[in-house]
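Entry:
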Amino acid sequence: PGSTGGLATPIPLKSQSKQTNQLGNFTWRNTQTSMPESEMDQTEGGEPVLSDRVLVNGTVTPLTLTTGGGLRWSEGISHRCLAVEKEVLGFSTEGSRIKIRAVVESGDGIGCIGSRGARVRKSFVFEPLSSDSLRLWCQKLQEYIDSLGRPKRLFIFLNPFGGKKSASKIFLDDVKPLLEDANVEYTVQETKYQFHAKEVARTLDLSKYDGIVCVSGDGILVEVVGYAYYLYGSYVSVA
């Protein structure tokens, strides 16, 4: 992408600095945009990894990603923040824009300090002011998400008769959208009869998956976990 978001004149970068950044279990060195401290959001989530001006709702504002996984910006007089590890599912690019897909507390917005409430899916759109900035933001966001060790491939057992016959609706309304927002690949196996899940588990190549999800009542879970413990013992982790 090479668009500058429709701006007649891109805002020039203030300065360039080379430094080594530590994030998760790896380190990288790069040339990145730096901003005056007076313009940089004072974060509590570690040192800034990347900070640059972006468009948010038509207004230019500083956006900062920290080593602690905080994504912070301002909207008017309000300071906004997202915890990448706990709230950000994934992101995608739409032309010159970055669309962050997250799960946040319900309300009219998010803030660094606020009351807890029900969690809802919500998207946030940032528009870097140059194609180089867009590429760098995508790179650093993906590197941080990858450092979290999240599952990328899941096998899902779905029992349409489980949970008072609500399992299929739960999967379609709640589970599937979250997996797609997080860019998780998945295979769905609908169970047809008792012990069907156990039969499938016996022939399943678990090396192809990072985990197994059961959308069902307790019966399918017991079948799958019981067989997994039989094969792998204490190496099995149940959440």
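The chain has two domains: 15-147, 153-235.
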